[in-house]
Amino acid sequence: MINYTTYNICKHICGDTWDGLGSVTFTTNGSAIDLTGAFVEFGVKYSVASPNVLTLTSENSGIFIAAPLSGLIVIPPTTVDIPPGKYNWYLSIKFADLRVKTYFKGIWQIIPNILPPTDYERRNY
């Protein structure tokens, strides 16, 4: 049985600050999931078989378990400076009892940053 939710994140400009995820509360059957001692990971990879190009975790300060007993996490804003392309992302939790559960996955497109023209470009184009 597949228990994850597919959610495609809005396109993001390479090098810009991503707003993160303000707060996510994990529940099951209407009750909060206890995240005490859990490891939460948000990973971004080019393909399912490739290594992560971006990893935010509850151990590297990329994700905060704001209220463990309430199942609440926060992913604060962060600069995303990975090459333009279409990526796969996921959000998973490794619980204290070593169970691993992926709750979300989807596609995230990073688009090129189009900088303002330089003085040279303004004069010559």
The CATH topology label is Immunoglobulin-like
Beta-strand share of residues: over 45%
> Number of DSSP helices?
1
CATH architectural category: Sandwich
Compute the separation of the termini in Å.
Answer: 57 Å
**How large, in whole angstroms, is the Cα Rg?**
18 Å
- CATH top level label: Mainly Beta
* Regions with little confidence, pLDDT below 50 for 5+ residues: none
What is the count of β-strands?
A: 13
Shape: elongated
- Average pLDDT, to the nearest integer? 90
Q: Tell me the series of helices and strands, N- to C-terminal.
A: EEEEEEEEEEEEEH
Helix content: under 10%
Total domain units: 1
SS class? mainly beta
Which sheet architecture does the biggest sheet show?
6 strands, mixed
Annotate the secondary structure layout:
Elements: E1 5-6, E2 9-13, E3 17-18, E4 21-25, E5 27-28, E6 31-32, E7 39-45, E8 52-57, E9 64-67, E10 72-75, E11 78-79, E12 85-94, E13 100-111, H1 119-124
Parallel strand pairs: 1-13, 2-13
Antiparallel strand pairs: 3-11, 4-10, 5-6, 7-8, 7-12, 9-10, 12-13
Primary descriptors:
mainly beta, three-stranded antiparallel β-sheet, 125 residues, 5% helix, Immunoglobulin-like, single chain, 1 helix, 13 strands
Describe what this molecule looks like in 3D:
- This protein is mostly beta strands.
- The protein has one domain (5-111): Immunoglobulin-like, CATH 2.60.40.
- Helix content is 5%, strand content 50%.
- The protein is built from 1 helix and 13 strands.
- The strands form 4 sheets. Strands 1, 2, 7, 8, 12 and 13 form a 6-stranded mixed sheet that branches. The protein has a 3-stranded antiparallel sheet with strand order 4-10-9, with no helix packed on it.
- A hairpin with a 5-residue loop joins strand 12 and strand 13.
- The radius of gyration is 18 Å and the shape is elongated.
- The model has no long low-confidence stretch (mean pLDDT 90).
